[in-house]
Task: structure prediction
Amino acid sequence: MTLEVPPGYRAHDAQSLRFYLADIPAVAGKLGGAAADWAIEEVGDGNLNLVFKVRGPDGGVAVKQALPYLRLVGEAWPLPLERAHFEHMALSREGRYAPGLTPEIYHYDETLALIAMELLEPHIIMRHGMIAGTVYPKFAGDLSTFAANTLFFTSDLALKAAEKKELIAAFAGNTELCRITEELIFTEPYMVAERNRWTAPYLDPFAAAIREDGDLKVAISRLKVKFMGSAEAMIHGDLHTGSVMLTEEDTRVIDPEFAFMGPMGFDTGAVIANLLLNYFSQVGHEEAPGARDEYRRWVLSATRDFWNGFREKFLRLWEENGTGDAYPAPLFASPEGKLRLAAEREAYMARLFADTLGFAAAKMIRRILGLAHNIDLEHIADERVRATAEARGLTLARDMMVNTEAYPSIEAVTAQAERLNAWEPKLGG
Amino acid sequence: MTLEVPPGYRAHDAQSLRFYLADIPAVAGKLGGAAADWAIEEVGDGNLNLVFKVRGPDGGVAVKQALPYLRLVGEAWPLPLERAHFEHMALSREGRYAPGLTPEIYHYDETLALIAMELLEPHIIMRHGMIAGTVYPKFAGDLSTFAANTLFFTSDLALKAAEKKELIAAFAGNTELCRITEELIFTEPYMVAERNRWTAPYLDPFAAAIREDGDLKVAISRLKVKFMGSAEAMIHGDLHTGSVMLTEEDTRVIDPEFAFMGPMGFDTGAVIANLLLNYFSQVGHEEAPGARDEYRRWVLSATRDFWNGFREKFLRLWEENGTGDAYPAPLFASPEGKLRLAAEREAYMARLFADTLGFAAAKMIRRILGLAHNIDLEHIADERVRATAEARGLTLARDMMVNTEAYPSIEAVTAQAERLNAWEPKLGG
Result:
């Protein structure tokens, strides 16, 4: 199958990239020395792109280039190169609102769908660190800042309506990436679909129950409608622990190619979902039963700290920078008005928390029953153990999505996670 | 003040329009005869545009041309001419989804911001007819069809997500018209604002109570957020009885220049608001107390028939044409699934009804306390009588917006309207 690409596009290999970068002063200057001496390796382990690490005598550069198809599936699933345009636009804005929490951009080439940016070293993908049991003391603080700042400052609470509509129009073209989410997260895990897979036969009864769960299918459909129609803020769109690179001292969020103007809870939910999945996965990574208990406690405390930090920071931003067209200040200028607005802000956060839990649940379920799984669970070799962890995650997710009001706080969620982690599900097979 | 207009734009007068139209075969052919013999009159009584009626020996044409400022206020309030582009786009789509319920378009000139369309005769603006006490037997049926078809077919229930995102982008530029709504409907009536006016001093205590009503200000702010961020469907954006031209046999919806991708309840609410305002205004138009009782009953029955008809038609469209990305059919394919989806459709309509009541209330309040009033009320010469009608409308609207759950059906709304119409409010002054 031959894919159409725009004139001027070519997928780089290490050698062609070397010649290309040599002509980009902003990049060549970072690397230093002669182009012939640069070390270039392709390291893309994601699903969508080529990723090169380039090292020279003076420093390193990461180069990400979009491929015209979904790498995970192959050329049979074409994907528009324009996603690099959306990624670049989102990354630029995120960097402005959450300085120091994204990689610095050195160079962008629209024709090549290529972004050259800061090489993050010795950062690793957070998911790998969590599987290894590494504690990241700054993670919850940094990621709650990232989410609060990027979501708040692109919302109606901070922007004038016309500015927000410009953003809506600017991201409206990212339909193919949204379609991946719509299909793989909000639809296929709840039906018989060729791309689904799960830990069979152990998880068969759980997968079957979800396919027959009318309340759950209504709940996921309501979330899908919200995803497609609620332009609340510029969301990252894929904010899982594979999109975070960090050390114990430094946290960066990468890969916002799924960005568009969508519901805020989709981002906050993604963070929580991936922490909870990792929590349940620990049974498959500990050397002896209980060996990872302390790590488990850290994962749940990071989950709580992320949401509570996000909530607090978002509220503070609103109080101090509520210059947008929503909840206009003149309506709430009196002392009574200020109190009423303060109460409404709490109610707003409660609604956002309910959205967060729904989207978190959707993300958990898709990683267990859908096409793309997480290595937190996939790397558990013992399939019974893996299925046990997955059944626990599915059970929590189902409850979070359908009985959302039973979880008024993040503490209620982590407490239920702990209870379910002690539960022995009745597996199939 | 000189306003900037694009090259090629000029506001027509009758004489220049004659020369212009003579060169447009689609228009000249409709009119027939020689251009010199056409009768042209400017009849614009709206706020935003020039409107010409052109008559020739073979037929008539209506010509609408946008002015670069808000006519109601004058050149101090510039308005972009591009609204004609959005109007033309919306009118074309409405005509496709609701055939026979909009004027036929003969000619569109983007540079002149000018649309030539079917001259509707002997149609009159519905508001005028309702003030005169004219019953329109086809109105509720036609307008419920218009609303159901235009909203359903531009929603996620009918469209693929990519098609809907194209519509979102296409209408995202209509920010100035949206801003009028955001300011005049969702903000100013609830605060001290220069542009507000009301029937003082009689209505002073009611206006003051609304400015101090914290629950109401939170409710209107939530509706404003929904207006700015919920891209549910292509809405007309100004669907009041001044945007309907009709006879007893034929109904047409005109003037969709406020169109954008917004919440459906804003359109359905506008219809209901304007019927209710007219209902309360009848006390000022009847020749003797009770003389308009039969007409009052018709207005309320039309209100009920509009909503119930809309609800039924929208549900039927969903059942028969639910091909969009929302609530995907494969999720609800089993007999149990079909039942569950049927129940969810009812729940969806209940949520849409709650939105409708909130937006209807917002529309009622702005017409009594804000800048732009309705002649239903303004034409009541006796200010005490007018204020009495307005106080009743305000009281119903406040309750609909804050205690929405007390109105589970349109019958509950019209029953409360009847109760309030017998209530003597304590006026100021």
The mean pLDDT of chain B is 96. The radius of gyration of chain B is 22 Å.
